[in-house]
From TrEMBL:
It comes from the Bacteria. This is DUF3854 domain-containing protein. It comes from Crystallibacter crystallopoietes. Residues 16-35 are annotated as: Disordered. Residues 19-28 have a biased composition (Polar residues).
Length: 1047
């Protein structure tokens, strides 16, 4: 019989196998009045003499027995729970108090300034208070440690304060894990690794103390004396424990593992892959309130089903010990540790094992007159009517009368949203998110009825707010009513009946209501009870076999290109499987061979950028660098972008002859898609015959580039003047264009790559190989799966998801600093290297991941050397960014202004005068200049005699300063330059920003100190003395005439 059937129909039938008298006394007791009572502290001592009339062999540990391992409240608790001193010492329980709390909290990853960290300090350092440190070990970590012949380290830690503080609900926080790490499937570190897959039985205990208490009693029953289980502080306790294990015969061996809580069994999925459960027997030992607490019962049912139906265990039994207290025969439920410490031995405990799951706790069904409920068959609703049959008309009972021929229940709630920054950072799914983070909240209501001799069902879907209204109003508030329900004679229930009917629907099968999240964003998203998974198109990359699930929300209804995004069909990954690792290594080599060693791009920096940017979206830190690929038509720009998109192809034909976006797309569309997709290409920014269109398209992409770098989007208001939720960008943005952008502030936020003649290999073989790898075998997309799953596996192995994020951030910071140092070594001494180093570090982060993968796979030096810090491909990226930085300095505000002024004067749009003789050209032969220089300063031949006259407005005057001829430009100069050279001085740039730049960029006379007024620098220099003396922004004549600033 399957688990589902047995837990349903046979729920109340107790298995008689190995049944104790106390179990038989409990047979047939159902409902609230017969619910077992938890054993009180006063009766625990009396229970010790009741084990079938025999005195049980119970531990008699005291706190002093643990003195060589732990003292304080922890020792008291271990003794009370029956954990043997040897077992405790081998695990490593430790006292926490004021003497060591600071260091130990840091070791355990409790953040000192968090609410949790502060609470720990208060609880553990107050006078007369202490705590117990409880190290949890991962099954996978123990296996890996054995393979590598190293000592296993704790996966995480739990703290038990002697005087716990209360939570916000007023309940004491008795046990507490460090936040954001998750919990493993725990195995005592002294357990021989050959037991992990080699025992006939696996016991699943809820809680470390229960597991260690069970281990202590188990060893005692199988040959260990009480003296064997002591520890005097001499020698290695794990070695002594291992010797006790080895004395147990194979048929009697039981592997004891622990989970941290009823819903924490799958938080570290890799642990479950490290145990072969198939065809073994499983014992579930949950808390004492298994038959009293519906949530505990439900979680145990879930584990029961998993072990039997998915893990394929041969037999699954439930351990639920019960004893009679002797006070009127009342029944008490006990946890494993309490039972073994105070009542009976291991043999006595396992006598309570049953293959039949205990019944669920009785629900509090209020049979009050006037209440409505859904009938047991689910097809109708009925009302509770009082039965007044007493002598004087008193109520003696109730009966139920049918009211509406429609039943139903709330099937599921669905939140449509994007993950929060905190979720992405911690990897933990949060049910409590701000309303502003939720795009939409929906509900599905299942309505059932009986019609024409069969069961009929209709699903009403709509915004969850419809539950605030009567069913007759659901359609007005966005509800979708199926036609089959609309035509039912009882639909909709109206008036008071409608309200009561809805209350019955809300209450029916309430515990089964589903809660799902539809993610309106591709990329990494959190899941309940596990590490994040990666959504791309309709594909989920992650451990779905262990109950982790995530629903992609970006489909063709949201984005018509969505079906093209993906990573192929095969998302299988098992990084513990050598055959899979060999496949990854082959794909790794082939990707690098095809993209790097083949020289498909003749410049190594371009190949490095394509590989880094193509895989960058797999890294769970938001990209900041835009790749700007420019060059003449037909040079290979779009194909280069295609080579990046091949890593994100759903089908092998995807992106072969197309790219996701176009420069013609509206800004609103582009702003939306870069908040939805992990990578996006804006293709073909080309010159236009329309000046307005060209300026609009350029401005649009400039704004988008800024948004990507700054992690910002345009703010907008709702009709009610509240702010709309902004669409923060997550994409690796790639732009292809025929020309460079000119705005300096935008160029500082992108990595430019020129693709023109000679930039692609003259042979078609290398470029065809990249196309064929995508088209014929889906190599690139498959490799993306490898990278994504490697990052998930690394998170499991090393510090959890927060540890992975910290590792990536540390690498990015390290690369950033290395970039700054390298650029300084190349002579780039400007203080403003921040943006360039951010760009290089951001895109090179891909190489840090690939380096770690290559080391993990043991790849050859030929491949590993490509990704070493400051060498190989990373150095090529830094060189490319450095070149762009130097080039961009010519577009700095001061230099751009001087170039614009030179252009304006040379074109005759304005002129400068001689300060000494305004009627004459500014320069003469006496100054060593010819008339050709005056032509470049806005003067032209007026007549056949060769006289010169000025053209356009006056924007400055020429003076002599220490033998150097300089121009003093007036404020009018900036306006004229901006009017005639908007490509150099875009609208929005101001004189206040450009004029200081001329001084700061060294474009003024070297011997002329910058003037000050009232202690502050000013931009204008006043020449000579007197009221009418000329003044303005000083620039040498030769600098203006040359028009190009020489580095």
């Amino acid at each position: 019989m399957g688990a589902s059937a047995r837990i349903g129909a046979d729920m109340n039938i107790n298995d008689t196998e190995r049944q104790s008298p106390s179990v038989a006394q409990n047979r047939g007791v159902t409902g609230c009045s017969g619910a077992p009572e938890r054993a009180s502290e006063e009766t625990l001592a009396a229970l010790a003499a009741l084990a079938d009339g025999m005195l049980p062999d119970l531990p008699a540990w005291t706190a002093e027995d643990y003195a060589h391992a732990i003292t304080g409240s922890g020792a008291d608790k271990l003794a009370d729970s029956g954990v043997a001193p040897l077992v405790a010492a081998a695990r490593g329980y430790k006292l926490l108090d004021a003497s060591n709390v600071a260091a130990e909290l840091k070791l355990m990853n409790f953040k000192p300034q968090s609410g949790q960290g502060k609470r720990m300090r208060r609880s553990l350092t107050a006078e007369g208070q202490d705590g117990m440190q409880m190290p949890w070990y991962s099954v996978a970590d123990i296996q890996n440690a054995a393979r590598n012949q190293v000592t296993p380290e704790p996966f995480t830690y739990q703290v038990r304060p002697s005087h716990p503080e209360d939570n916000e609900r007023g309940k004491p926080i008795k046990y507490e894990f460090a936040g954001g790490i998750g919990t493993p499937l725990d195995l005592h570190p002294g357990t021989p690794t050959d037991w992990i897959d080699g025992t006939p039985v696996v016991m699943f205990a809820e809680g470390m103390l229960k597991g260690d208490a069970a281990l202590s009693a188990y060893l005692r029953t199988h040959g260990a004396s009480w003296d064997d289980l002591r520890w005097d502080g001499e020698g290695d306790p794990r070695q002594k424990l291992a010797a006790l294990y080895e004395n147990i015969a194979l048929p009697d061996r039981v592997l004891i593992v622990s989970i941290a809580g009823i819903y924490n069994d799958k938080q570290n999925p890799i642990d479950w892959r490290e145990i072969v459960l198939k065809d073994r027997e499983g014992w579930i030992a949950f808390d004492a309130d298994l038959t009293e607490n519906l949530f505990v019962h439900r979680a145990a049912v879930g584990l029961y089903k998993y072990l039997e139906e998915k893990a394929k265990m041969k037999t699954v039994r439930v351990l639920n010990p019960t004893v009679t207290s002797g006070d009127g025969g009342s029944i008490a439920k006990m946890g494993v540790d309490d039972f073994l410490a105070k009542v009976g031995s291991w043999k006595r405990l396992v006598s309570y094992l049953s293959v039949t799951f205990p019944p669920a706790p009785a629900t509090d069904e209020a049979e009050k007159p006037g209440n409505w409920r859904v009938t047991k068959d689910g097809f109708r609703t009925e009302e509770c009517i009082p039965v007044n049959a007493g002598p004087n008309g008193e109520q003696t009972g109730v009966r139920w009368e049918e009211r509406v021929d429609l039943g139903g229940r709330i099937l599921a709630f669905e939140s449509v949203r994007q993950p929060t920054d905190q979720e992405l950072r911690t990897g933990s799914f949060s049910e409590e998110v701000a309303n502003s983070d939720v795009v939409e909240s929906r509900v599905n209501v299942e309505i059932t009825w009986w019609e024409d001799g069969r069961n009929r069902t209709g699903i009403v879907s709509g915004p969850e707010k419809i539950l605030n209204y009567a069913p007759a109003d659901w359609d007005r508030h966005g509800g979708h009513i199926p036609r089959s329900l609309l035509t039912h004679r009882a639909w909709p229930p109206k008036g008071a009946n409608g309200d009561k009917w809805l209350s019955a629907i809300k209450a029916h099968r309430r515990s089964e209501v589903g809660h799902t999240t539809r993610w309106m964003q591709m990329g990494w998203v959190p899941v309940e009870g596990g590490n994040p998974v990666f959504l791309i198109g309709d594909t989920v990359v992650g451990d779905n076999d262990l109950g982790q699930n995530a629903t992609p929300g970006v489909d063709e209804n949201v984005l018509d290109r969505a079906p093209h995004f993906g990573v192929g069909d095969n998302t299988y990954a098992d990084w513990t499987d050598e055959s899979y690792r060999e496949e990854v290594a082959r794909d790794f080599r082939k990707v690098v061979d095809t993209y790097i060693f083949s020289e498909a791009w003749t410049e190594p920096a371009t190949a490095a950028l394509v590989l880094a940017a193509g895989l960058r979206p797999a890294v769970p830190l938001r990209p900041r660098a835009t790749c700007y690929i420019y060059g003449p038509k037909g040079g290979g720009k779009s194909w280069t972008a295609q080579a990046m998109m091949y890593f994100w192809a759903r089908n092998r034909s995807d992106w072969q002859d197309q790219l996701p976006g176009s420069a013609k797309d509206t800004f609103a569309f582009l702003e939306k898609v870069v908040s939805l997709t992990p990578i996006w290409v804006v293709d073909d920014l080309a010159p236009s015959t329309s000046k307005r269109q060209a300026e609009s398209e350029t401005a649009k992409l400039e704004d988008l580039t800024r948004a990507i770098f700054n992690n910002a989007s345009k703010g907008r208001m709702n009709f009610d003047m509240t702010s709309m939720k902004s669409n923060k960008p997550i994409s690796q943005l790639v732009i292809t264009a025929e020309n460079e952008l000119t705005t300096a502030s935008v160029k500082e936020r992108l990595i430019p790559t020129y693709i023109g003649k000679g930039m692609l290999n003259p042979s078609r073989e290398p470029t065809d190989a990249i196309n064929d790898a995508a088209r014929n075998e889906g190599l690139q997309a498959r490799f993306t799966v490898h990278v994504i799953t490697y990052l998930r596996d690394r998170a499991v192995r090393k510090g959890g998801w927060p540890g992975l994020i910290k590792w990536l951030e540390d690498n990015r910071s390290m690369i950033k600093e290395a970039t700054r140092d390298i650029m300084k070594e190349r002579g780039i001494t400007s203080a403003n290297l921040e943006r360039s180093s951010i760009l290089a570090a951001d895109v090179s982060l891909t190489f840090a991941v690939l380096k770690d993968m290559a080391l993990n796979l043991g790849l050859e030096k030929k491949y590993l050397s490509l990704f070493m810090n400051g060498e190989g491909l990373g150095a090529e990226i830094i060189a490319r960014v450095s070149e762009a930085y130097v080039d961009n300095q010519t577009a700095a505000p001061g230099k751009a202004l001087v170039q614009a002024l030179s252009s304006v004067l040379g074109a005759g749009h304005a002129h400068v005068l001689s300060a000494e003789d305004p009627a004459s050209p500014p320069l003469g032969e006496a100054d060593g200049y010819s008339n050709s220089i005056n032509f470049k300063l806005g003067w032209a031949v007026a007549d056949e005699k060769g006289f010169l006259r000025p053209k356009g407005p006056t924007i400055g005057s020429v003076v002599s300063y220490k033998g150097l001829r300089i121009i003093l430009f007036t404020k009018e100069a900036f306006k004229v330059a901006q009017l005639h050279s908007p490509e150099l001085i875009p609208y929005g740039h101001t004189q206040q920003a450009a004029w200081p730049g001329v001084w700061e960029e060294g474009l003024t006379p070297p011997s002329l100190p910058r003037p000050k007024s009232r202690g502050s620098f000013i931009n204008t220099y006043a020449h000579g003395t007197g009221k009418g003396r000329p003044k303005g922004l000083p620039v040498p004549v030769d600098t203006v005439v040359d028009g190009v600033i020489q580095e």
